[in-house]
Amino acid sequence: MAADGTRGGRGALIVVEGLDRAGKSSQCEFLHKSLQESGRSAKYIRFPDRTTAIGKLIDSYLRGQSQLDDHSIHLLFSANRWEIAQSIESDIAGGTNVIIDRYSYSGAVYSAAKGNPSLNLGWAWEPEIGLPKPDLCIFLSISSEEAAKRGGFGGERYENEAMQSRVRELFSSVFGMQRNTNIQTIDAGKSFEEVSQDISMVVNECIARVDPASPLGKLESIHGL
Ligand code: Z5A
Ligand code: MG
């Protein structure tokens, strides 16, 4: 089955990015269910995928149970994507729409936001080059005031205001420099239903536009990083 429920054709790769508590996971789950209910083949993946051996190292680091050099943990996050890249490509080729909750953009900005002088955005993006390129990247934009209303930070690393405000600036730099990538910013401060309607609109447009004859792209270097 193809992305739009007809025979033949490939699926669409849809990435959802955003700051902490923007609603990425709840919206991805809802989108996944909606696509399936409309008869489309769909899969939901989230990064970090904490179930793999690499993912378990990441989980332990995020919970503060282990310490790792900034570059090492950065490369583990990237390796966690590479270990699943082939299966994403084959799902897409087989006509399944794949929804990804956080991807390379989170990978680059969270590591660069640490302010390590030998780990800037340019360095952080390099290991992402060659990974499957999204047909659509949705950025769920939320103000720190709106995010604060959704409950306090959890106990994980990076869940503090200073880090989040650097992440916000870096997301805007990375997305501002993207050429040839379909990035759609959606106001995630609205009600859940309003946000899901906005998401559904851009996703349906993307799925309708995916050219069955053109294969999934690969992430490229970002000019200016
Ligand atoms: N990280 C990294 O450094 N490098 C990488 O390569 C990757 C990630 C991939 C863990 O990520 C950390 O890893 C993260 C980035 C870093 N660090 N930080 N910060 P994660 O994805 O596992 O984090 P998470 O625990 O899933 O949190 P989250 O993604 O930040 O939350 P969310 O998915 O965006 O939000 P949510 O769980 O869907 O919703 C949050 C709450 O808001 C929940 O109670 C909802 O019911 C509520 N909600 C959702 N939408 C609404 C609306 N519209 N109105 C009101 N309330 C709402
Ligand atoms: Mg989440």
Automatic annotation (TrEMBL):
Organism: Aspergillus mulundensis
EC class name: transferase
Superkingdom, taxonomy of origin: Eukaryota
Name listed for the protein in its UniProt record: Thymidylate kinase
Keyword Transferase listed: yes
Similarity field: Belongs to the thymidylate kinase family.
Domain Thymidylate kinase-like, chain residue ranges per copy: 16-199
One cellular component (GO) term of this entry: nucleus
Cited Pfam families: Thymidylate_kin
Pathway: Pyrimidine metabolism; dTTP biosynthesis
InterPro entries noted in UniProt: P-loop_NTPase, Thymidylate_kin-like_dom, Thymidylate_kin_CS, Thymidylate_kinase
Enzyme Commission number: 2.7.4.9
